[in-house]
Design a protein that fits this description.
250 residues, mainly alpha, elongated
Amino acid sequence: MSINPHELLDRLEEDAAAKNLDEGGQAPLELVRRVVKRVDELGAVFMGSHKGTSSKEHFKQHDIEMKEYVYLMGPSLFGDLKPTPSHEQLGVADLELAIANSRLWRRRADAREAGWLIEAIAMTAYEIEEWLRIWVVSQGGGEDFHPDDRFELGRIISKSEEYNLDVVLIVRLREFNKTRNRAIHRLLRGEISYDNLTAAYDIDKDLPEDIKRWVVNALPNFEDAATEWDALENWRLWDAGQVDFSKLGE
C-alpha cells in the first residue's frame, strides 16, 4: 500500500468514512491535507533554492527543510529500492572486508576455466550462503546469525525452507550441496581425480544467479515494507511539533 502523502490523500478523499478512522479524535484526512500542503511548500522552496543568499545560515535552514521533506515523504522517496539486513544481522564481522571478498564471486567462472575447481565450487557456495542469509533475516529469522556462528550450508538451506524460499530452488540447493560434499569427500578418499570436480561445479552453475534474482524480486521495496499506520504516526508527531529537524539524524 502506498504511503506517498499525495496518493494517500487521494484515497482518503474518496473514502467517506476517512474522518472516523482516528480513535484519538484527529481526522486523518485533515492531517494528510496538512502534510501534503507542507510537502508542496517545501518542494517549491527547493525548486527556487538556487536563488538568493548562499550564507551559512541559508544552508543550515535548507538542511533542516530537506530533513523535514524526507521525513514527511518517508519511504515513498525510495521507489523500488530494496531494504536489506545490516551486516551485523547477517553475521558479518568486518563489512569492508566482506564487500571486498564478495567481489570474488564474479570470478568463479574464471576459476573454473583455469582449473581451480575447489575454489570455483567454494565461491559458488559462499555466494549462495550470502543470499540465503539475506533471505532468512529479511523474513524475521537469523537471530542466531553472528560472526562466530559455524552454520554449514545445509543448515542454512533448511532455515531458508522454513521461511518459504521457492521450493524448486530448495530442491536445487540440496542437490548442489549433496553433490559438492560427495565430490570433495571422494577426492579426499582418492576415489576421483581433481579434474573430476568439474562435474560438481557444472551440475548447476546458474544456481547463485537464480537465487539472487529470486530473493531480490521477493524482497519488498522500502514503500511496500512500510505501513500506512507508521506514516500517520510520524505525521502526527510532526503535526504536534514534536520532531526537531535541526537535530534529526545526529
